[in-house]
Specification:
heterodimer; A: about 160 residues; alpha+beta; Glutaredoxin; 2 domains; 4-stranded mixed sheet; 4 strands; about 45% helix; B: about 575 residues; alpha/beta; Ubiquitin-like (UB roll); Alpha-Beta Plaits; Rossmann fold; 3 domains; 5-stranded mixed sheet; 4-stranded parallel sheet; globular; binds iron/sulfur cluster; binds FE2/S2 (inorganic) cluster
Amino acid sequence: MAARRITDFTAVKEIVAKHRDTPGCLMPILQETQGAYGYLPLELQEVIADELDIPLTEVYGVATFYSQFTLKPKGANQVHVCLGTACYVRGSKKILDKVIDVLGTDVGETSEDGRFSVDATRCVGACGLAPVMMVNDTVYGRLTPDQVPKILKQYIEKKEETA
Amino acid sequence: MSNVNIKINGMDLSVPDDITVLEAAKMNDIDIPTLCYLRGINQIGACRMCLVEQKGARALQASCVLPVSEGLEVWTNTKKVRDARRVNLELILSNHNRECTICTRNERCELQKLCQDLGIRDIPYEGEISGHKIDDASISVVRDETKCILCKRCVNVCRNVQGVGVLGPVGRGFTSRVEPVFDLSLNDVGCINCGQCIIHCPVGALKERDDVDKVWEALDDPKKYVVVQSAPAVRAALGEMFGFPIGTNVTGKLAASLRRIGFDKVFDTDFGADVTIMEEGTELIDRIQNNGVFPMITSCSPGWIKLMETYYPDLLPHLSSCKSPQAMEGALIKSHFAEMNHINPEDIVVVSVMPCVAKKFEVKRSELSEGGLPDVDIAITTRELARMIKEARIDFENVRDEDFDPYFGDYTGAAVIFGATGGVMEAALRTVADVLNDADLEAVDYEMVRGVDGIKTAEIAVTPDLTVKVAAASGGANLRKIMDSIREGGEFADYDFIEMMACPGGCVNGGGQPHVRAKDKLEKDIPAERAKALYDEDKAHKIRKSHQNPSITRIYDEYLGKPGGHKSHELLHTTYHARPKIKES
Ligand code: SF4
Ligand code: SF4
Ligand code: SF4
Ligand code: FES
């Protein structure tokens, strides 16, 4: 839960140093830190709070307020299901449920082997294809729940070959 | 500051120009309902209970954050206002675990009161309840998110008043919560257990760990000899739970009620406080004469100790090695009292009644035990004692005053004022000055360390050639200012003696004391009113210096030897250790 994995804080300290004197610097600091490390775990947020001399709860509050931030490392394959209005009315919630079911991984979580993460997103601008799911950069449109296992299977098997 | 002319409900009013509409209304006896507002601490316009209609403004305005201005005109009781207020309240209730009959805040809940006042009878929006987490891993504070109304009072108290900041808003929208980071328990994030969040929460979302059942169990066990001790500040606030005005001293009723509940001995932590002065005064004199670490800092407040251990571990040698009065009293009961009465200390259960939830944490410190036996077994708060008195059906209002049991219940005026910020300092000065001058000095009132200011400083000529620089501070954020200064070699680094209390105003305003509604806090300075009850009791005491307490003389003659001696060090002194801010799992 609170196990710390990252030990090299050079990058995050540089990012804080760059922004620390501008008001409202927390947002850019979190964005760049996520850019550098991929996610915002406890140990990075602790460093940011310490360096800025603000409570950790303040950093964490912002990091959980905006959906662009993620607290956990993303999986090797990132599955996004659009829950924007157009997708939603065409049943994307059922698609999402199917994804969760097939991968055994909840929304916002990463599978235990680190290979998949599942996210619900807002409109991805492909409303004509609703309901839409994205795996990494590939868009799958006009989906029905029973197509989901087949699509995911490709990724599951592809990984197993290389492993 | 000048005045401005405004109109509330058609009434022409002239009010100071630097206040809010809510305050202006209050000054003119116009009541506007509030829920999240807490003067000076939480003025964020979150709950929208205090809405008013403003001339020229399309939307209703939250009066707690609306400044007055020349010509401003508002109405507090139009249909539009009433309807909006009701909808907002109903929305809060639709997401609230409404189990008033079994809630600790029943009858002392600001949400419940508001629903009664506004005549809410049904809730049209029955929805899913969002927060479900109950965090009861902390020894002191239990959080129940099913009752949290997201007012953020606790957030701002913890962050700004206590300087700790371990509670915060998390997430957004339907899933927003107020909690510690990364789903951790309050137990694992550097909370100092002060309980200020509890006494500022308007509802039952934050409460003390309830240890009442453990006390009843001990009392019902025929093999146990159950001794109770009660802290100085309890007597200044317990009465509030039974309808007495804030600031009523109920010492006699307290002792009588404890006896009726069935404790075998009814002792007073004030005796332990007098012992503390002997030990701490001696330690101070010893540090002065032997070039010890300065400033020396008091160690009675367990919230303060945890703040030091967590945030200033490098400065621990500044702390006095004295145990707190609660622990001293307990240690002496399980040693000297047990021997005198031929009772096996293992059969003794020491219960303490404290204005504090951090004391629950203190009694679990392994340093505060002798041969595996804790100095104090169970610490309950003023609020829990009130519940016991009610459950035992004691007629508190009419019960006749009684005294505490002799010897371990004998105390001086100096001990009583331990409950207010500056009290320990004053009590210590009374004794130290007498000892160093080898005289019975007449001056006992050290006014300069009294009052509810967050940081009080003074230079005191204790003897013709010794002047000491002293300070008394309360409220975590103030304590941190002083510690930061010491760490940087600033102003406070060359002080001699500093009293620190985690709760603002001292123990009278502790996290275990009765809740006071935000409305009443607007009218009264609660810590000051309660402190006055203690200073009045001090004044009425014949003996006002700890070293003149005959039972103190007796315990040193018969048992302890001399203050700071071998036996004292064994029983009455302790050690501290660094703690991580975030506990790794
Ligand atoms: S917090 Fe207040 S309103 Fe909610 S259940 Fe408890 S007493 Fe009732
Ligand atoms: S007990 Fe004190 S330190 Fe802990 S959360 Fe509450 S206010 Fe903050
Ligand atoms: S826990 Fe209490 S004080 Fe804190 S936000 Fe919730 S209701 Fe308000
Ligand atoms: S918004 Fe004014 S009291 Fe809550």
